[in-house]
Inverse folding.
């Protein structure tokens, strides 16, 4: 663990790849009640490359539910591990915004192959299958560990009605 960078105790992997992510991209978010949608844009041009990042606070369960996570970073040059860094960053930001603690969990629905190729490999989470659905559909759960990782670079923004994704 690296405890010197940014006064946090994140893994060296996270510290390294969040820095890489933020060298080339910036994140903004829009908050609507218990939902936050995140947007990724290029630093150089301000061009938005992703808006399919939606996280919901499940208040009764005090949990984070990842409703959509398609950062589109794999399409970018030299983007290996940036999706993992992005997920960590937005989960920490969301946790700070909703004042969550280590009793919370992270849940999401996905397919078996995405779990095996992405979520299962994330050492900074402990995603595991908690329920199998029809076909390859599965539900994942991971513990949430709030840290002091600085997420202040993620700025809130207003969105137009055309950009509005889904706020329940």
């Amino acid at each position: 663990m690296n405890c010197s960078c940014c006064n946090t105790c994140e893994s060296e992997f996270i510290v390294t790849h969040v820095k890489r992510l933020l060298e080339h991209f910036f994140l903004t978010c829009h908050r609507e009640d218990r939902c936050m949608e995140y947007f990724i844009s290029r630093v150089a041009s301000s061009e938005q490359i992703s808006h399919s990042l939606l996280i919901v606070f499940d208040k009764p369960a005090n949990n984070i539910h990842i409703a959509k996570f398609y950062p589109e970073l794999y399409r970018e040059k030299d983007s290996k591990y940036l999706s993992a860094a992005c997920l960590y960053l937005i989960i920490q930001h969301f946790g700070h915004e909703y004042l969550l603690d280590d009793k919370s969990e992270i849940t999401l629905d996905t397919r078996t192959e995405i779990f095996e190729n992405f979520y299962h490999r994330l050492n900074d989470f402990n995603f595991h299958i908690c329920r199998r659905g029809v076909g390859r559909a599965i539900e994942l759960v991971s513990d949430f560990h709030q840290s002091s990782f600085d997420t202040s670079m993620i700025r809130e923004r207003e969105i137009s009605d055309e950009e509005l994704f889904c706020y329940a």
User: Anything to note?
Assistant: The chain has a mean pLDDT of 89. The beta strands are 25-32, 35-42, 48-58, 63-70, 105-111, 128-132, 137-143, 155-156.
